Amino acid sequence: MFVLEEFSGPEPILVGRLHTDLDPGSKKIKYILSGDGAGTIFQINDVTGDIHAIKRLDREEKAEYTLTAQAVDWETSKPLEPPSEFIIKVQDINDNAPEFLNGPYHATVPEMSILGTSVTNVTATDADDPVYGNSAKLVYSILEGQPYFSIEPETAIIKTALPNMDREAKEEYLVVIQAKDMGGHSGGLSGTTTLTVTLTDVNDNPPKFAQSLYHFSVPEDVVLGTAIGRVKANDQDIGENAQSSYDIIDGDGTALFEITSDAQAQDGIIRLRKPLDFETKKSYTLKVEAANVHIDPRFSSRGPFKDTATVKIVVEDADEPPVFSSPTYLLEVHENAALNSVIGQVTARDPDITSSPIRFSIDRHTDLERQFNINADDGKITLATPLDRELSVWHNITIIATEIRNHSQISRVPVAIKVLDVNDNAPEFASEYEAFLCENGKPGQVIQTVSAMDKDDPKNGHYFLYSLLPEMVNNPNFTIKKNEDNSLSILAKHNGFNRQKQEVYLLPIIISDSGNPPLSSTSTLTIRVCGCNNDGVVQSCNVEAYVLPIGLSMGALIAILACIILLLVIVVLFVTLRRHKNEPLIIKDDEDVRENIIRYDDEGGGEEDTEAFDIATLQNPDGINGFLPRKDIKPDLQFMPRQGLAPVPNGVDVDEFINVRLHEADNDPTAPPYDSIQIYGYEGRGSVAGSLSSLESTTSDSDQNFDYLSDWGPRFKRLGELYSVGESDKET
What we know:
Elements: E1 2-4, E2 13-17, E3 29-35, E4 42-44, E5 50-53, E6 64-73, E7 84-91, E8 105-110, E9 118-121, E10 139-144, E11 149-151, E12 157-160, E13 172-180, E14 190-200, E15 208-209, E16 213-219, E17 227-231, E18 233-234, E19 244-251, E20 257-262, E21 267-272, E22 283-292, E23 306-316, E24 323-324, E25 329-334, E26 342-345, E27 348-349, E28 358-362, E29 372-374, E30 380-383, E31 394-403, E32 410-420, E33 428-429, E34 434-438, E35 446-453, E36 465-468, E37 478-482, E38 487-492, E39 504-512, E40 520-532, E41 538-540, H1 554-580, H2 615-619, H3 654-666, H4 717-731
Parallel strand pairs: 1-7, 8-14, 16-23, 25-32, 34-40
Antiparallel strand pairs: 2-5, 3-6, 4-5, 6-7, 9-12, 10-13, 11-12, 13-14, 15-18, 17-21, 19-22, 20-21, 22-23, 24-27, 26-30, 28-31, 29-30, 31-32, 33-35, 35-38, 36-39, 37-38, 39-40, 40-41
Membrane topology: Single-pass type I membrane protein
GO molecular function: beta-catenin binding; cadherin binding; calcium ion binding
Protein name: Cadherin 8
């Protein structure tokens, strides 16, 4: 059965009718319906079997329904026949417009593309039934975007409709596309979308300089590598298609200037390669070329993809420092050259037109010993101190050239001075030689081979001549022989040498060099007679003539010496251990007078008592010259007072007396290392206040005047009154 969708009449729409062959026309048969939508969407007349759709249907929601119908007895509801299944299909109507689900669209196509170049394709969908009718049959068309693009009506492929579209003229295009159902006929529904087409760049434009002539100026003293100016060739293309490389293809400054490409700014940077000189050339002309790096062969006919421009560079004058005639100087001088002699000369000039005079000087940091001087006007270098090639062969100094008119303009040049050798050193032995001669040696035997050395350095190398002193030419014991390697061999003339008769022989040898004039020196070789075994190996060179008669061998003497040393070590250890066993110098607590107070209940006898102390000590301090024993310690070793101290002279200062006693205490080996009581039995003299003792007073009480006591304050007032009363009574 079929039913149209979207039907919305006032009455339910009749879908169809069911009828059974068992129906005689009576009312005993009842029709029932079950399945999809039975009772809710579809109803059946239980008497007639008519099926009606009671709701609005939408094919896009559900396209067909499966139901089951059956005839039953009206009264008993018993089936009269098996159930029958049938399908109700919803017929489509054009109720859905086409839709572009992926829109809006974006696409790119290279500029300058040929006609018909594919850009992209779009797709629209229609929810209507594509099988029944033309409700879902779509046709595509372009509403906006002509005449640049076209579209295939059925496949929706968009293509270029014009050839050689130029990105530099217009880069983006907006295309409106329509999709219409019903095959595009009238009454069909339609939907639209937009397509943005962007033309991508190709290298179809050559670079072009903004101006044909560029002017730059540069000072002549500019640093090498400095950027002098920039030139730029514009290119309408973008990205790598606009990249250009710059070169200097012609001009009179190709060797002095260079040009590099700046990839970011897309311009050329002109830099200085070599120094400029205003006085030599004041301007330069360059021809600069800019060429595309990436060239598309499809557009080579549009070429050439390059452009040229002229660059004029003007050199400006600048105050330049002096220029030396050579970048370095090498001078040679003999080591015996006279002082103040000229050893060489440097020259420099001011390259400026003004040509300022030059003053020369030596950088003393390179000539700390001031061995050289230079004439400030003409640059002549002279010798200031003597040279010695053997101490230093090379001297490297720096000469400074300064413009007199502008002291800030300074140049420096290194000067290497080589000291040439002269024969001023006599040859001598290469080392301190000491030869050994065996007593049992044979005549003609080589005792020692010696070589010589010379601090000088002749061009042809060293060649030495050896000889004996004239008075020793006929030496009975030894002779010499010159070797090919410039060394000398000393040979014995006879055998039978005896060290007991003569232990040492001295052999003076004259060594001469081959210099001009030749120099010579005398070196003495010491030859010691030794005892040797049968193989000629030295055993002993000591004189044993005075030892052997005693009957003691060398081994016995060594044993005796070892025993003596052992005994000395034992004695030293014994004394050391005994010292460690001594009692400590610090006194016990009960004997420390600093911590014990001894009380005596005796009253002194005053000035009349002459038994409590030695009056002579106070009356005559000059007479004390004895040793006062220490009472605060008990010394283990008896300390003897030092003799020889002169008696204290009359009028000695107390300071000196105390220093003497302090010296004795410091040198006392029994003194403890702590503060102790020192007894000084001495009363000083020469005090301004006078002596406080009346033992030596020659005046009597009657001669005393005690009026001054009243001036001592309230505490001495009473005492002053007593003495004052005594004086007045005497007068009365």
